């Protein structure tokens, strides 16, 4: 069963210079339970409920004071939370015990536990509050609960390990991410039947729906992307690359941005829904998983599964980073913004391109450093947040600088400066998935290439792009001969290994034991056999950037009396 509990990613320094965005640094960090996953805000936004998978609790946060005001004990493995439209009930999936726990939000007590079946994970409530839909991984079904009777009234087949679940604002459709089907099932809530299956990216897990219900956003763990579904046509209209291990996504109330928690590099990717591109990666806590936004769109709450915390991220200035040359399109979110007469980034005036009472779009002027963003209206001048001017990045090194043409899961380390908040890395025109990021280092995994050869490496940040390095894709190495192909168990036999693509050999092993070797040419190398504890044939493995081909060698026992 796939749960929202996460493996521990590699540690990251979380200082401003190491990639932690000001949007997060300006907010609170709230300790909660062990392995927090799903998080949901009450309809009024005054409280947040956090499912702590590891400690079998739900933490209740006051969003005015950003403190924990209650802790509710649950059954084993709470995963996700959803609210009734009036906010009087919270529904929590409890995976290990196969329950949906119903919480009275006035008293923060569990009023009933509804047995739904093993592997209860995703949960959503219909807009009229009459039904709750829950994904059940173990039975490959979606259960339907009648909230008047708190009983399961339907079971909908959803093969492929259903996990994430959302319901459209009009309540007519439920969308279910099916982990091992690489697809999203669409359920007609009037008939409780699957009416469409939409292929998406590999290993889809969680979803978010736009405020108007026109688009559904699906996080795909298999290739670290977000599939954008047009709900009118039931088709994927865009695929947006994010960073490693995306989890929950949330759409801003105005629909302008999608926020995606990336548990690998400890970031939140911000997608501009107009262009379907990532405009910022915001550094957060360790293992970000769940994310929810206030109804006014001014703050996001992010569960950090490894750290056991909830981070509060300001979303009033998005993106909050840009080039010193200016020109960044920035969305400002707040209150009483209608008919603004001026917006300043520090002392420099920005160009206003759109303006409503709660949102503005502006073009950032040139500048440097960290500056306040102020808005002037007839009512006065207020500060909405800060904007950080980012220097142009530079690259100085890459290791390894070559790898197999098919791609590899091995991490490639790019070094340089001003790399914090890296948005994308490209090998030629192929996007590489960001694994970790700091101010002087980005690690990625390279996708495959159509053919062997060198390709340019480019890193894109809010400050611009950096190049000047290359990566070489290599055909797979081969081993065609090992001569002599036998020798004593005491080792010491000098052998010649022939093949192709051997020039970059990094290691030679006999039965897994490293051997001393010398590269003679791209087709020849010599090696000295290590001792073996037993006679018999063993594998000879030659490891290099083009792969790890193998041959055989037979150890022979010495004669005795």
UniProtKB/TrEMBL annotation:
SMART domains: IPT. It comes from Streptomyces avermitilis. This is IPT/TIG domain-containing protein. It comes from the Bacteria. It holds the Pfam family Cytochrom_D1. Residues 313-390, 392-474, 476-556 form the IPT/TIG domain. One of its GO terms (biological process) is carbohydrate metabolic process. PANTHER family: DIHYDRO-HEME D1 DEHYDROGENASE (PTHR47197:SF3), PROTEIN NIRF (PTHR47197).
């Amino acid at each position: 069963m796939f749960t929202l509990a996460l493996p521990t990613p590699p540690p990251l320094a979380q200082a401003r210079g190491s990639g932690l965005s000001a949007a997060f640094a300006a907010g609170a960090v709230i300790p909660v339970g062990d392995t927090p996953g799903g998080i949901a805000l009450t309809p009024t936004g005054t409280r947040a409920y956090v499912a702590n998978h590891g400690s079998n609790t739900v933490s209740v946060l006051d969003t005015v004071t950003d403190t924990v005001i209650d802790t509710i004990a649950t059954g084993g493995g709470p995963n996700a939370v959803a609210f009734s439209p009036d906010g009087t009930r919270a529904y929590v999936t409890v995976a290990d015990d196969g329950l949906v726990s119903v919480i009275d939000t006035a008293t923060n007590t569990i009023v009933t536990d509804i047995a739904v079946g093993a592997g209860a994970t995703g949960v959503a409530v219909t807009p009229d509050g009459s039904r709750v839909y829950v994904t059940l991984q173990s039975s490959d079904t979606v259960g339907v609960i009648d909230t008047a009777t708190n009983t399961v009234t339907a079971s909908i087949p959803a093969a492929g390990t259903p996990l994430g679940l959302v319901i459209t604002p009009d309540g007519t459709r439920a969308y279910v991410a099916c982990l091992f089907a690489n697809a999203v099932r669409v359920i007609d809530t009037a008939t409780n039947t699957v009416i469409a299956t939409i292929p998406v990216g590999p290993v889809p897990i969680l979803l978010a729906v736009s405020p108007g219900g026109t688009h559904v956003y699906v996080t795909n763990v298999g290739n670290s992307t977000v599939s954008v579904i047009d709900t009118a046509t039931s088709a994927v209209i865009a695929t947006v690359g994010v960073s490693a291990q995306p989890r929950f996504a949330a759409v801003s109330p105005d629909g302008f941005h999608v926020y995606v928690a990336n548990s690998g590099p400890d970031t939140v990717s911000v997608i501009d829904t107009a262009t379907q591109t990532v405009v910022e990666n915001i550094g957060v806590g360790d293992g970000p998983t769940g994310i929810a936004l206030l109804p006014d769109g001014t703050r996001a709450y992010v569960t950090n599964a490894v750290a056991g915390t909830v981070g509060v991220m300001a979303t009033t200035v998005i993106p909050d980073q840009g080039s010193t040359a200016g020109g960044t399109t920035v969305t400002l979110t707040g209150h009483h913004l209608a008919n603004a007469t001026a917006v300043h980034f520090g002392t420099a005036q920005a160009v206003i391109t759109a303006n409503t009472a709660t949102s503005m779009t502006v073009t950032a002027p040139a500048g440097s450093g960290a500056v306040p963003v102020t808005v002037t209206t007839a009512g006065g001048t207020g500060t909405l947040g800060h904007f950080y001017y980012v220097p142009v990045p530079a690259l100085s090194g890459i290791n390894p600088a070559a790898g197999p043409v098919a791609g590899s899961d091995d991490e490639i380390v790019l070094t340089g400066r001003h790399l914090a908040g890296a948005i994308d890395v490209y090998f030629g025109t192929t996007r590489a998935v960001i694994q970790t990021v700091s101010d002087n280092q980005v690690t990625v995994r390279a996708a495959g290439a159509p053919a062997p050869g060198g390709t340019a490496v480019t890193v894109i940040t809010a400050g611009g792009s950096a190049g000047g390095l290359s990566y070489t894709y290599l055909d797979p190495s081969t081993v065609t001969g090992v001569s002599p192909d036998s020798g004593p168990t005491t080792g010491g036999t000098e052998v010649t290994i022939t093949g192709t693509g051997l020039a970059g050999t990094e290691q030679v092993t006999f039965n897994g034991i490293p051997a001393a070797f010398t590269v003679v040419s791209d087709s020849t190398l010599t090696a000295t056999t290590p001792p073996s504890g037993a006679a018999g044939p063993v594998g000879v493995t030659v490891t290099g950037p083009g792969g790890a081909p193998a041959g055989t060698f037979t150890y022979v026992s010495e004669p005795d009396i």
